[in-house]
TrEMBL record:
Pathway in which the depicted protein is active: Polyol metabolism; (R,R)-butane-2,3-diol biosynthesis; (R,R)-butane-2,3-diol from pyruvate: step 2/3
Top EC class for this record: lyase
Gene (UniProt): aldB
Species of the source: Levilactobacillus zymae
EC number(s) per entry: 4.1.1.5
InterPro entries associated with the record: Acetolactate_a_deCO2ase
UniProt record similarity statement: Belongs to the alpha-acetolactate decarboxylase family.
Annotated protein name in UniProt: Alpha-acetolactate decarboxylase
Alphabetical list of PANTHER family matching this protein: ALPHA-ACETOLACTATE DECARBOXYLASE
Keyword list, A-Z: Acetoin biosynthesis, Decarboxylase, Lyase
SUPFAM superfamilies: AF0104/ALDC/Ptd012-like
Catalytically driven reaction(s): (2S)-2-acetolactate + H(+) = (R)-acetoin + CO2
Transmembrane segments: none
Amino acid sequence: MSDTTTLYQHGTLALLVPGLLDGTLTMQELLAHGDTGIGTGEGLDGELIILNGTPYQIDSQGHVNLVSADFTLPFANSHFADYGALMTVENATRADLQQQIMAETHSANTFFSLKITGTFTQMRTRAVQKSGRPYQSLAKTAEKQSVFSRDTVTGTLLSYYSPQLFDGAAVGGFHSHFLSQDHDFGGHILDFATVDGEVSWQQFDSLEQHLPTQNQAYMTHDFAQDDILGAIHQAEN
């Protein structure tokens, strides 16, 4: 039986800041730790979302691609889905939605995942263009992002909430990706205006943090010189 109370994380958001963008885990390895997740590919190659065991990549052209088993990632989250119904929302703004979720779950100090299926208005997403070695910093690489928008779109929002205590290893607060029902639109969510839909959630009591100890660039980097939180908040929000 799969463990549904553990969130698996490969890499940290902090390692992306100085440009440690080597793919250090395969999709096949990631899927051994969950059937649901988000991440990015080597060189920040697009935005990934895994739903029902199927991994999708939204690339910088806006295409939604199925991901091969040997696709590599510098950073990803995954878990085995066991969501429970939380609430139904109508015409909820993003800010109101997040406030309601925190009030209902009382879970600001632990990790949890959200899955929202419904119809969103003024949805804006992004995906970054893949870069090659020598890699630039997260801030520089993220400048080569494409932004996509839909006035109205139906689909699935998948989000991981991390406590502020873990800001840097992850991004404190919500980190959300999207895939449309028709599999023709998605990416890292920048913003949306409103949502009508069903909100489900899954809480974790354990974080399994996996580090790329076989990657020399990571093992020898001095993070003391990096503005980790500043760069993460600029790139992720």
